[in-house]
Amino acid sequence: MLRLISLVVLAWAGGFAAFTATLPRPAGEELQTEAVVVLTGGAGRIDRGIQVLRDGWARQLFVSGVDHEVKPHEFAVQYKVRSAVMACCVTLGFEATDTRSNATEVAAWLRAQGIHSVRLVTSDWHMRRAEMELRRVAPRGVEIVEDAVATRPTRRTLFMEYNKLIARFVLGALGG
Q: Which of 9, 42, 86, 133 is the most exposed place for a label (fewest CB within 10 A)?
């Protein structure tokens, strides 16, 4: 039994080391997708999504998990988005409150818009779990391009996220 526990601890520690050493990176500029999706909750995420839209790397922007108090006009002013661009190309999602509900909200939007390729923008430490959650509920055949916002996460943030990733992987494997 002690050997089994030691093996599990070693596997966890090795996995954690790999997780922290290989955080996802921003996607290349040459990659075009139909849309860019931003999961709120971290610095630089919305700015990255707007940059992708402005630079023409995607035609539509969906921001998931926007606070109910935020009005589209306030969003446009804060992020310097012209009203014509807001009207044609930016959708704010107000239903999500966590990573799983972000994925559900995004998947519904992808279906409604008939989107087949999307850049997923979130923090580097959050990307693996966010992509896993989205892949579980996204329409079949949707290409998901990881476009991570580089951060300087604390050890605590990495520890918590790694354990959440493992827990969701296990629960997903068990059908949950």
A: 9
